[in-house]
Design brief:
There is one protein chain. The protein starts with a strand and ends with a helix. 23% of the residues lie in helices and 34% in strands. By secondary structure, it is an alpha+beta fold. It has one domain: Jelly Rolls (Sandwich), CATH 2.60.120.
Length: 186
């Protein structure tokens, strides 16, 4: 289940909780973040190719390309067998920004975004069917989990936009990683 919780930036205890996708989208829109639920236009096999996945979501992808000028889309898969899993995970766990959108659509698996646009922290647990688009300049971090099984569509305006600009803040250390978040939200 997709979840949005909102926290003071100095502690994890949430003061707002949303599990309804419409409420999540409405609340995130207030900070300029787009959240949507997408459906494939066909059944996809677990081992579906990148081309098959992109074709199944072509209408939604084309809509975002037209609206925001995205030039390309790809699919990335991360499993516990990924050869650089620890380095990849560590890279996203520190607060950073980008000079471009960071767009993720979860075809399979789940991940936890923390957004820090102001004096609050917005934790968004994304699962299969969720799209999250974080605008340029919003401070955030992401955890794909200890044993990820992610299949994610990414959209790009330029590849350079994906370079992380780390803030140097240690705020992410005050918040639980994916598994701890899920456990605490039970």
């Amino acid at each position: 289940m997709s979840v949005l919780t909102i926290h003071a930036e100095d502690r994890f205890e949430p003061f707002e909780y949303y599990a309804d996708p419409i409420e999540i989208a409405t609340r995130l829109k207030c900070i300029g973040v787009q959240f949507e639920r997408w459906q494939a236009d066909r059944e996809l096999a677990e081992e579906a190719s990148q081309d098959a996945i992109l074709a199944a979501y072509a209408e939604a992808i084309e809509r975002l390309k037209a609206a925001y000028g995205f030039q390309a889309a790809d699919v990335i898969c991360v499993t516990p067998k990924h050869p650089e899993l620890e380095a990849l995970r560590r890279k996203f766990l520190a607060e950073h920004t980008h000079s471009d959108f960071e767009v993720r659509f979860f075809v399979a698996g789940r991940g936890l975004f923390y957004l820090h646009p102001d004096a609050k922290v917005y934790a968004v647990l994304c699962e299969a069917g969720d799209l999250l688009s974080v605008p340029a300049g919003i401070k955030h971090w992401f955890d794909l989990g200890e044993r990820p099984a992610l299949k994610v569509i990414r959209l790009f305006t330029t590849p350079e936009g994906w370079v992380a600009q780390y803030t140097g803040s240690r705020i992410a250390e005050r918040f639980p990683k994916l598994e701890g978040y899920v456990e605490r939200m039970k």
